[in-house]
Input
Amino acid sequence: MNRMRIGIFCFRNDLRLHDNRALLTALDACDRLHLVYVFEDRLWRESAPHRISTHRARFILESLQCLIEQINNLGGVLNIIYGNIEISIPHLMDKHGAEACFLSKESAWEETKTEEALSKVVPTTLTSNATLVHPDDLPFVLSDLPETFTQFRKKVEKKWIVRPCMAPPKSLNSCDSTHANLPTLSDLGFFNNTLDARSYFTFKGGSLSGQNRIKNWLWDKQCLSTYKLTRNEMTGADFSSRLSAWLSTGCLSPREIYEEIKKYEIQHGANESTYWLIFELLWRDFFHFLARVHGPKIFQSRGIHPEREKRSEPDDAEERFHKWKNGRTNNPFVNANMNELRVTGWMSNRGRQNVASYLINNLELDWRKGAQWFEEQLIDYDPCSNYGNWLYLSGYGNDPRPGRYFNVKKQAATYDPQGKYTNMWS
Ligand SMILES: Cc1cc2nc3c(=O)[nH]c(=O)nc-3n(C[C@H](O)[C@H](O)[C@H](O)COP(=O)(O)OP(=O)(O)OC[C@H]3O[C@@H](n4cnc5c(N)ncnc54)[C@H](O)[C@@H]3O)c2cc1C
Output
């Protein structure tokens, strides 16, 4: 590529300087780079507060604050703008005489449409940055993505390639612009909520807090060595890594977590638990690739199986849904999980599976109602993992079985035998 005089780099769900291939590509290609973050209307304005809760909004603002400080330390500034990427970026390019723009490639449909719209009007370079295994390193072309996770995993593990992490840029003093201040929660129309005393864990946005969580959970407490045994627990801060929020905003890269696991295995030994975290990161990859292959289908009621029968909802669907989301169903275990989600923005994987199964099988509601509620509430919302998991449980996804049923009473007896979790969040 010929070197350009001026370019634009737009941060999206890659709110970090380290291991950010898209940013390094842009820095390599341009003499001067304007760094930008767009508060997109589709998320923050038009449908707010229905697509993003205060928990996630706060996490993103904290992540941006951390990013701004890191950029400033390297001599650059972050330009904050409001609008739509496909309109704001070309406008900014005009203003600064930029020749091209650079972004991380996203996997989900809406984000992909934005990329297409932008590429139609200005020269755009997209770099895949979000997955553990780079799509170009898969042992098959994406359109041949295996139907089930197990087939996918086996093929990928046979030809295992994880690209090494890349160091952050040494300097950003070629990056300038007129920057705006970061908005506050209330500027964006959110109420400032206080932390609930029952929360086991405080998520703080930003790559430094994410790296601190790796240090604390993996190295200091060595929780990785027992992860496979604890990951289905429900109380406490450390039964699972809690890295999801930093991964979904891109404050952490899956490759850096992988490298930490590998270093940990050398020091403390490899076992089923250390492998299992990689296994879970592969689930995340699988859902990203599924989203790329199936585009809008993962958001549609019959998902990737339009040939399967459509289920109808009962007449009192709205009332059932209202009770479910507010933790007022007939099942205390489901209610506890839904309360934890509303109050903290997070829920364990075990909880997510149970409340999703309850909505689909017991309440007989359209799975998309639940997925949309999760989208709004989750601090770690990721379109691919969220809709992918819901689809999987609904029977319209990549599961060879037509739907997964969880007996929530049995599950409560197994995973919350003393009712400690249920009582805490009742
Ligand atoms: C209905 C439903 C909706 C979900 N929605 C989301 C979502 O919006 N965002 C999200 O990140 N995860 C989602 N998950 C997956 C999973 O529940 C969370 O990733 C996990 O609970 C986050 O906690 P953790 O970081 O402590 O996970 P850990 O158990 O420590 O796992 C480590 C990482 O592996 C990945 N991972 C683990 N399980 C899964 C999985 N089943 N699918 C995809 N990736 C996985 C995540 O990135 C996670 O951070 C959903 C699961 C279900 C059943």
The pocket of flavin-adenine dinucleotide is lined by residues 231, 240-244, 247-248, 277, 280-281, 283-284, 287, 348-349, 352-353, 356, 374, 378, 380-382, 385-386, 389-390 (CB under 6 Å). Residues 207-295 form a domain with the Serine Threonine Protein Phosphatase 5, Tetratricopeptide repeat fold (CATH 1.25.40.80). The CA atoms of residues 332 and 422 lie 7 Å apart.
